[in-house]
Amino acid sequence: MDLVRELEPLLLAAVRVTVFLVLAPPFNHGAVPGPVKAMLGVGLAFALAPPLAAPNLSTAGFVGQLVSEAVVGGGLAVLVATVFAAVQSAGRLIDMHGGFEMGMAFDPMTMVSGAPFTQLYALTATVLLFVSDGYQLVIGGLARTFDAVPLGATLDLPALAETLAGAVGQMMLAALQVAGPLIAVLFLADVGLGLLTRVAPALNAFALGFPLKILITLSLGVFALIALPRVVSGLAEDALTGIGRVTG
């Protein structure tokens, strides 16, 4: 019986951590195998379980608490994923204005249906999170939730909804900050082609627009890619702040 009481907090913590790792970047990437996520969740639960008090629940209460911990981990993971969706959204904006959406395909690794820049930016953000130790900030924020929302407590859903609404606004703003300069250049290129058509109606300037916009996107898209490390670092801090706002 004592062994069961000792395993209860471990299992509850493992559910919260594992659900978070399955849904939150960068661990939600398809290149991370499911068994690895499960083992990592159990391992982190072992590190967090010692200071956790054994809840000593009944069978029905234990099952209900498992569901509650899954909701906590999933809610926090959705918040983090929303913040980091800014990078993918920036790539989608570049694809849309640069004419690359016609090459849209489904990537089974990221489970994203997008054009080349969308997939490139999503993969680059995942790599940068691992290289820059941004994933440690994400895990650290998750570990601190056990102090703010201990086992047996429920997540403040109104605060989560409010924070998610703010995260969506920040996501759109960050996407525009990354892709905005390139979109402005592409818009000016369209304006120039329109003026050229008015000056020389016989010249089909828009037939030249597709290769020109592709050339501009490939040339200037590199500069937007160079700015991604700073953007990803800022997004990791925003995700940590959002977790603290929900659990604080």
UniProtKB/TrEMBL annotation:
The keyword Membrane applies. The chain crosses the membrane at residues 6-24, 36-54, 66-87, 108-131, 174-196, 203-228. Keywords: Cell membrane, Cell projection, Cilium, Flagellum, Membrane, Transmembrane, Transmembrane helix. It is found in: Cell membrane. It comes from the Bacteria. It is a multi-pass membrane protein. It holds the Pfam family Bac_export_1. GO terms for cellular component: plasma membrane. GO terms for biological process: protein targeting. Belongs to the FliR/MopE/SpaR family. This is Flagellar biosynthetic protein FliR.
